[in-house]
Design a protein that fits this description.
By secondary structure, this protein is an alpha+beta fold. The chain has one domain: Hypothetical protein YwqG fold (Roll). The strands form two sheets. It has a ten-stranded antiparallel beta sheet. A two-stranded antiparallel ribbon has the order 3-7. The termini are far apart. This is DUF1963 domain-containing protein. It comes from Lentzea jiangxiensis. InterPro entries: DUF1963 (IPR015315), YwqG-like_sf (IPR035948).
Length: 259
C-alpha cells in the first residue's frame, strides 16, 4: 500500500456519461472577453472551475471562472502549438465568438472533422491517476533504449489492472499523469517540454522555458474519440510557476495520433 500511495496522483475525469456533477461542456457557445484574440486552434470545451469537486486535482487552479481548451490533431504542429487554453475570471464580460474562427475551419477536410468534435455536458468523477509503467521489452526493436521507471512485477500488475478500468476514449482529464502513458517513447509531459524547448530556441515564444519536466504540470489531456482522428490524444501542459501566476497564455499542447 505504501508503494501505491507513493506513485498515485489525484485527477478529475470529465465525460459525457456518468452520474457526477455537471462541471462544463464539450462545445457549446464560445464565450470570450473582447480583448482575447481568436484562438488559433478549434474550440474543444469549457470547464467551470468553481464547480469542480474540492481537492479533485493537485493543481493550483484558479478557484473560479471558466477554463476554455482549444486543440487540433494534425502533423503541422511542431512547437507544442497543437492547442491553447484561456482562463476567464468570474464576472468578466464575455461575448459569443464564431466557433469556427480558426484557420483550420477554412479547409473543408479539417472543417468536416472539427464539426465532429463532441458536444454536450461534462460530468466530473474524481479519480486517482497512475504513472507510466511500460516494460523494457516495449523498446526492444528500436535503435535506442527507453529509460522506463523501474517497477516491481507486482506493482506493474496492479497498475495494469487498475488502468484497465479507467475511462478511456472521449474522456477529458484535468491534472494527474497523462492517461496516454507513452507517446513516441516519451512520457507525454516530457514530449511537451521537448517541443516547448524547441519553440523557445527557435524564437517562437518570448519567455523563459525550463528544460526540466519537474518544473511542468499536465493541465489536461483528452482522448478524442473523433471519427477520422481515432486513436488521437491531446496533452496541454505549462510550467508550474506559470500556472500559479495564471499565465494560461503560456500553455503548450501536443498531440499523439496512433490511427
Amino acid at each position: 500500500m505504501r508503494h501505491w500511495e507513493d506513485v498515485v496522483r489525484p485527477c478529475v475525469r470529465l465525460a459525457r456519461d456518468g452520474d457526477g456533477p455537471v462541471v462544463g461542456r464539450f462545445g457549446g457557445p464560445l464565450l470570450l472577453p473582447a480583448e482575447v484574440p481568436d484562438p488559433a486552434t478549434p474550440y474543444v470545451a469549457t470547464i467551470d472551475l468553481a464547480a469542480l469537486p474540492a481537492g479533485s486535482t493537485d493543481l493550483p487552479l484558479p478557484p473560479d471562472g471558466t477554463l476554455l481548451l482549444f486543440a487540433i490533431v494534425e502533423d503541422d504542429c511542431d512547437y507544442a502549438d497543437a492547442g491553447s487554453a484561456v482562463h476567464v475570471p468570474a464576472g468578466t464580460a464575455v461575448a459569443e465568438r464564431d466557433r469556427h474562427s480558426s484557420w483550420w475551419s477554412t479547409v473543408d477536410e479539417y472543417r468536416e472533422k472539427i464539426e465532429r468534435f463532441p458536444q454536450g455536458p461534462l460530468r466530473a468523477t474524481p479519480d486517482l491517476s497512475l504513472p507510466r509503467y511500460c516494460e523494457e521489452h516495449y523498446s526492444a526493436d528500436l535503435h535506442w533504449e527507453a529509460a522506463w521507471p523501474t517497477r516491481s512485477d507486482e506493482l506493474r500488475e496492479l497498475l495494469r489492472d487498475a488502468r484497465a478500468g479507467i475511462a478511456g476514449w472521449g474522456t477529458l482529464q484535468l491534472g494527474g499523469f497523462a492517461s496516454e502513458e507513452v507517446v513516441d517513447l516519451h512520457d507525454p509531459l516530457d514530449a511537451v517540454v521537448e517541443q516547448a524547448t524547441r519553440a523557445a530556441a527557435d524564437g517562437k515564444v518570448d519567455f523563459a522555458v525550463s528544460e526540466e519536466p519537474a518544473d511542468w504540470v499536465l493541465l489536461a489531456d483528452w482522448h478524442t474519440d473523433i471519427s477520422g482522428w481515432e486513436g488521437a490524444s491531446v496533452h496541454w501542459a505549462l510550467q508550474r510557476k506559470d500556472l500559479e501566476e495564471r499565465r494560461f497564455d503560456r500553455v503548450f499542447a501536443t498531440y499523439y495520433w496512433n490511427p
